[in-house]
Amino acid sequence: MTKTLINSILHKPINNTPIWLMRQAGRYLPEYRQLRSKAGSFMDLCTNPELATKVTLQPLHRFNLDAAILFSDILVIPDAMGLGLHFVENEGPKFSKKITTVEDIDNLDISNIINKLSYVFNTIKNVKAELSPNIPLIGFSGSPFTLACYMLEGGSSTDYVTVKKWLFNNPEASHRLLNKISQAVILYLNAQIEAGADVVMLFDSWGGVLSENAYLEFSLPYLQKILDAVKKEHNEVIIPNIVFTKGGGLWLTHMAKTQTNALGLDWTINIANAKKVITSTVGLQGNLDPVVLAVGDKSSIKKEVVRILNAYANANNGNISGHVFNLGHGVLPITNPDHVSYLVDIVHELSAKM
Length: 354
Hints:
By secondary structure, the chain is of the alpha/beta class. It is 51% helix and 11% strand. The protein has a 7-stranded parallel sheet. A two-stranded antiparallel sheet has the order 2-3.
């Protein structure tokens, strides 16, 4: 069966622009909130393959999306490395332990990470058994730098003082940590592919908090290391990869040199300008502002969709292939599901006429 999203990423002919949404399974859906309440906690939901499968598929039952994305969390890797992840209501993720010394880095254990994360791979297998053959499943991981942020800060941060102190005062130890995380991510993504993931995505969610020099030293080389080692094919089928650095619009030419199949864009860059600086072999994913979807009416949503679709096509000699429509970040919890349904349908309708 033809997978429109994969064909577009690989610049093959398509009939319409494919669309999926970051955080398309989440709190804006009443069925998700009901299942989340039943699970008891967010981690209980993530670690239960039966429930995580249901959540992954929920948006596909409601919307005409072109891909499913695995329901999980980027922080399951540091959890499996021994830091003890839990979520605090209204505060977000917290670790029972955090990295405070070089010895803590050396004590991180990745030897049994695949077994510890078996619930993720079981979820992938379950989803693939139920998913339509023409709908790809996207697996994912956080980038080494983004995971390091949480591991050094002990949770979320607004200023990243702790992680930047490590980067600039102890770069050798920082690279040691980033290398170890990279090894874990490579193992994790390859296991996802072996379990059935059709596409893999790296979320460099906090790469944009760095200066350009720091990004080129502490984030991009580790993205490259992972891309070099992650499977490009499985069972003689191409497995595309996507890299998304939130706030990374200024570094797209650097990012494209990694030879990723596609780059995710946040809403701060015009997609036409991105296309002009990116080689024809690299696809683009994005980049509607999530706030437009959350609080805009249908008229304003359509206006932005028209702008993005036209901007990409005009910069690509009238060809819509190579573009995957998405948000510039995740769906906001306040978003009306009817707006999501409208967005998906209008992207398909308008792009089919181009």
